[in-house]
Amino acid sequence: MDFAYGILGQTAVRMHGKMNEQWGQRQTRNILGVLLTRPGQRFSQDALISWLWDDDLPGNPQEALYKAVYRLREALAEADSPTSITRSGDGYLVDLDENLVDVAAFRKLIRKAHDAVRSADHETAHGSAASALSLWRDEPLAELRTERASNWREDKVKSMLLPAREILTSQLLALGRPDEAAGWMQELAPEHASRLAFVKLQLQIYYALGQSVQAQTHFLDANRQFNEAADETAKTLLHAFHAELRDRYENPPAPVVPVRRAAPPTHPLPRDLRGFISRADALETLDQWLRPGSPTRSPAVVLSGPPGIGKTSLAVHWAHRAADWFPDGAIYLDLHGFGPAPRLEPADVVDQLLQSLSYPVDHVVDTTARAAVLRQQLADRSVLVILDDAENSEHVDRLLHALSECAVIVTSRRRLGALTRRHELAALSLDRLDDRDSLELFVRRLRGRGEREPGAARRIAHLCDGLPLALTLIAESAARRPGLSLSTMLDQLRDPERLLSIGDDGDDQSLRAAFSSSYQMLEPPSQAVFRLFGHHPGAEIHVDTLLSAAGRPAAETRRALETLVALHLIDQPGDTDRYRILSIFHRYAQTLSTQHYDPQPLRRLLSHYCSTADNAHRVAHPHRDRPPRLDPAPDIRPTQFETSAAAHRWFLRERTNLTALAALAEHHQLFDYACTLPHLMHDTFVIYGFYDDMTAGLAIAARAARANKDSHAEGSTLNDLGELHLTLSNHNAAEDALSRALELAIDDESPVAKLTININLARLHRLTGRHGEAIALFRSCITHAQRNGDPVREAKAEQYLGETLAELDQYEKALPHYHRALHLRALTGDASGQAATYITLAELHLGQEEFAVAHRHCHLAQAQIAGDLTAGMRLRTVQARLAAAERNDRAALRLSQEAVELAERAHNATGQARALEAFAEILYSRGNREDAVDAWTRAAAFYRGRGRDAKADRVEERLAVARDPHLIPQARDGESDEENTVAMPAPRRSVIRHR
Question: Which strands make up the sheet holding 301-304, listed edge to edge?
């Protein structure tokens, strides 16, 4: 096969002409495996992190991800078919033709096998299936054991492996080779062998081999299993199949030539769609439920699903396919349950059916009598009746008695639960097409254009959410406009209004019209809850959010949700506490929320999220500042949290929603929410490295405060934004934000604000190498702090001044400032500040080789830490370097490992980088080059992820030397960074606001 990458087993890459499973490190193989599940499609950082780690996250998953991608790019350079790992938005994609992956090769072979089965070419079908199965080396993504990987693996077993084995075994039976078929069956896992399809195959094998006793035993065992599982459908189907199979082998039937009688003259079936796509399982199910003489035959079948899912197409296609089973014909009636046309009432249906049978309707006046006559007329006929588009159970309830002698298919957008329970009917709910079938349908409808722009065709198909109506309308629109490229059309369809208007040309039904006919049938409470989904930025919403933001009694909101689920407009994806809306219905709900604009639902949604975020922040960060709590809207019921971990999980799960809601609040001029939400998100997002979200969020908050004419909040936010830019080494942006914050503080005549911002500006001068300006401004800040009686900020300025002088090797001048900072922090009871200063002093004396003094300061720092993980990590890093300097390698290794572990527990990425850097130096000095290279690689990834490019470059230079000792690293200018020493934390957030 001409594929170059494999995930049907351990992730493999073709290198030097052979598929290699032992390339790269395990995490490197895993991230490529994940990306190869959807070649050419972007995985967001959140999705990749979930695929790789589940809830067992590393300390900073973004940096860990960056590291894995960095290694992956290096490893793929040796591939026979090199590919690139491309950054796309907030995620990554593998830029690769999907045909180069073994999954595509497998599917291509199975499609060939299916085609051969349809043409009764059993040899080709068997050969293709066998070739496909030879590609299945082991469990797909065998090394990745997360929930997402397990779900994907289970799906591939069900959708690829088992169907391929079923084809292979059935074709061996068709070729008269039951002994080989038996060998393949023995390889099945017990949980798969007990599936109905394989039970049937095993029974066929036993009978073909003349082993009727074994067949009977196997039948009884399977029957018992289905009985224990309460699977009545499987049990009934098994009994029918076994009876037919036994009869076939014991009493071979004489050939029967069916005699077809004339069909009713009116109401014929609509034409069958050419090239009907997918739905093989649904067609087989209809066979079992509607075939004349079937032991599992149902009085009628209810076929339900959302608008545009293809219910009518499936019913009509099955009717054409099963025409020989109904020699008296098939009748199709559109009941117009949804839509602008008048509803066809049950009495009208009876009249039309009697007319179809050439019965003089006017001879019977009473409607009940007419229904009885209809039943009598149909008693000796074999007829299929399709009642399309029923509004509800009541719409067709009385008809079923009159049609009891017929096979009946009822289609509806509702599930018709009352009807199925009352008459014990079989029910089938249609799901959307998967991506492969969606693309196949779309390309087929494009009439040849899809091959010229495959990428755009794939993205448009994905945009349609597996809805056949959307795929068909867009394909027909594209076919009518050959001069319009699919890429241009894709850009246009990103606008919900354009997408929903497709087909609105006066001759066909648009998506909007199809969806509106369902929406208009809803009661006002259900309509309001559906529109609430349109206000929400994400497609999935927690039930607490819906109950809180709906502004209605909880029982009424729950009934509305059940109605929306029954109409297939939303669903519950496994978790009973969350509801999800398809993307295409989400766009429709957004247009409704715009057309029927009411500010209250969005206000309530924002109030719920703000109140819940405040609750989460108080539990996750009890000692941190937060903005004043906004008064919640009436009857808002925010989520409560018992543990810090639960609060963090909520922030992370709702991250994209929170960021988007802040932007929505700004757009709708709800400035209090736009300003408050980003500050509540800040602490958790910074811990986990979501800097892009926080940069965008604080920018929104600053604009909102300015629009709200709240200069204090604007200045506080700009100070926070400036600090964030300092962390990311975005020095120009930091200077812009801090300068503007200083202007506001001067205008407000706020001495605390001016002092805080000037300390940060002095830090900026220091970071950009302007040490003279930094020293002068720090001294000025000390003077102003003394004048204001502010020992906390005076201590910060003294500490930073000492660090700046130490960077310039002016240790004697630095020491008094450190000691002054210690004195002030002791006066204010700032234990963590004292610990930070002691650690800084220990590192300074270590650099001067004054080991005894360094030890004393480490001991004093330890006494002040009191469970502070970040301070403990910094102390262990200094102690490790001190032990290494004293040639105590065993202690150095132990302490540096403890530093790494503490940094991971504290989610401190920069601390992890520094601890790993120290660890690497110690390992390298002991001759352990391989582990040192690994630690330096991880440190560089952490630095790079934090925006510390200069530090990352320095570590990568060290890496290059470690890998090739003959290299000589370039000389560096004296690097100026606040982390050249173990510095104290930056001034506390929101210090301006909380004067």
Answer: 330-334, 384-390, 407-412, 301-304, 426-429
Decide if 246 contacts 218 (C-beta within 8 A): no
Q: What is the CA radius of gyration of the chain?
A: 35
State mean pLDDT over 619-633: 85
Total residue length of the chain: 995
Give me the percent of the chain exceeding a pLDDT of 70: 92
Tell which residue, 942, 959, 880, 898, has the closest CA to residue 58.
Answer: 942
- Contact predicate 296/237, CB 8 Å: yes
Question: Which among 231-235, 337-341, 655-659 has the top mean pLDDT?
Answer: 655-659
The β-bridge relationship of strands 5-6 and 540-542 is unpaired
| Comparison of pLDDT for 361 and 751, the residue scoring more | 751
What is the structure's pLDDT at 976? 36
- Are 691 and 947 in contact by the 8 Å Cβ rule? The answer is yes
**Closest CA relative to residue 876, chosen from 848, 897, 849:** 897
Residue (of 955, 902, 962) closest to 930 by Cα position: 962
The number of C-alpha atoms within 13 Å of 64 and in the hemisphere containing its C-beta is: 20
Write out the two tokens for 245: 């199979």
Residues 684 and 680: their CA atoms lie apart, in Å, by: 8
Give 303's strand partners: 411, 428
- What integer is the mean pLDDT of 680-703? 88
Give the model's pLDDT for residue 365. 75
- Alpha-carbon distance of 487 to 859, in angstroms, equals 66
Residue 906 has what DSSP assignment?
T
Answer positive or negative: Cα dihedral of 121, 124, 127, 131: negative
Residue among 117, 260, 130 at smallest CA distance from 184: 130
In tens, the pLDDT along 487-521 reads 898 888 888 888 888 876 554 578 888 898 899 88
Q: What is the pLDDT of residues 29-48, one digit of tens each?
A: 899 999 999 898 888 888 88
- Provide the token pair at 132: 């496909």
Smallest Cα–Cα separation from 417: which of 390, 400, 392? 392
Using alpha carbons, select from 750, 587, 610 the residue that is nearest to residue 670: 610
Task: State the residue for tokens 């000389």.
Answer: 971
Helix axes 791-807, 771-788, angle to 10 degrees: 160
pLDDT at residue 603 above 50?
Answer: yes
Give me the residue label for tokens 């009884």.
Answer: 220
- For residues 59 and 904, is the Cβ–Cβ distance under 8 A? yes
Tokens of 788: 């204001």
Pairing of β 43-44 and β 18-20: unpaired
Q: Lowest mean pLDDT of 41-50, 202-211, 421-430, 961-970, name the range.
A: 961-970
For 635, the 3-state DSSP assignment is coil
Yes or no: say if 146 and 52 are a contact pair by the CB < 8 Å rule: yes
Q: Cα–Cα distance between 230 and 453 in angstroms, integer?
A: 49
Range of lowest pLDDT (62-76, 332-346, 798-812):
62-76
Q: Which residues fall within 8 angstroms of residue 77, CB to CB, at 6 or more apart?
A: none
The fraction of the chain above a pLDDT of 90, given in percent, is 36
